[in-house]
Amino acid sequence: AWSADDDLAVYTRKTKTKYIYNSTDDVFKRASSNVGPSLNTNYYAVHPYTVAAQSISEDGEVAVDMLLKQNYAVNSFGLNANVMVSSCPKPESASDTPIELSFKNLGGYLRLFLYGEDVVVKSIELRGNNDEILSGSANVKIEQDAAPEITWVSTSAQPIILNCGDGVEIGTSAADATAFWFVVPPTSFEKGFKVRITDVDGRVMQKSLDSAFEIARNTVETMEPLAVEFPEVDTSLLLDVKFNEDGTVSDNGKYFMEVT
Question: Which of 197, 153, 130, 6 shows the shortest CA–CA distance to 65?
């Protein structure tokens, strides 16, 4: 279902127009000027507005930004993470009747389940083991009767980072593990992928799946619950700095570097 935070980039002309969802009328209403040369055959739309390029080609090819950073949401993907596209024939004549658009997801979904004792997750990075591109600039071909096609403009490996805000406290057992959703472009991970989990204290754990894995468009891939356990810290190597009343450093700590 749409929410009041949802918006669209609509192309009835070659430049985009912003439409914002109106929950009272259950319709998207125009929120910016509609300018530029008219499209001749089809209208197009991209959700959300911010990821879509300013202009589109006559045959429905548009540049989109597949987000590097996605935001955590409870039991779902984050706001604006799920890029969708739509197309419909251009009406033969002007009308006040709203145009109905049927949207198609660009990506698929990876759902991780994490659990651990006293763990508050700050962020999770997803990265392919074979330098797969997971985020960045891409060209998307939008067709009414076919699945959207993605062609990467970015040429270097890019991860996806799930931002968990002030932190998400995870369940303490596999039975009550906490779900984390990634929206992932259709990708064949030839050598698997890795996740890098960082907690609110800066501790890091990395886990790798080293076999081939595929995420197809419009499908959900769910991983078995993963226990989050951080390496033990050698307290003898901690930086123990003590200061004198005048602000100078007392020379009785253990340091990685010389302190003056």
Answer: 153
Query: What single-letter DSSP state applies at residue 163?
Result: E
CA distance 138 to 77: 20
Q: Does residue 147 carry a pLDDT above 80?
A: yes
26 CB-near residues (< 8 Å, 6+ apart): none
Q: Mean pLDDT across the stretch 107-112? A: 98
Predicted TM-score of the model (pTM) = 0.86
φ, ψ dihedrals at 166, nearest 5°: -75, -5
Strand locations in 90-159 (E): 104-105, 108-115, 120-128, 136-141, 149-152
Whole-angstrom Cα distance, residue 66 to residue 81?
Answer: 8
| Helix/strand/coil for 140 | strand
Measured distance CA(96)–CA(94) in Å, rounded: 7
> Which segments of the chain does DSSP mark as H helices, in order?
none
Query: d(Cα 238, Cα 236) in Å, to the nearest integer?
Result: 6
Which candidate, 194, 215, 189, places its Cα nearest to that of 204? 194
Q: What are 33-69's pLDDT values in tens digits?
A: 888 899 999 999 999 999 999 999 999 999 999 999 9
Cβ 13 vs Cβ 37: under 8 Å: yes
Which residue reads 């989990």 in tokens?
197
End-to-end CA distance of the chain: 60
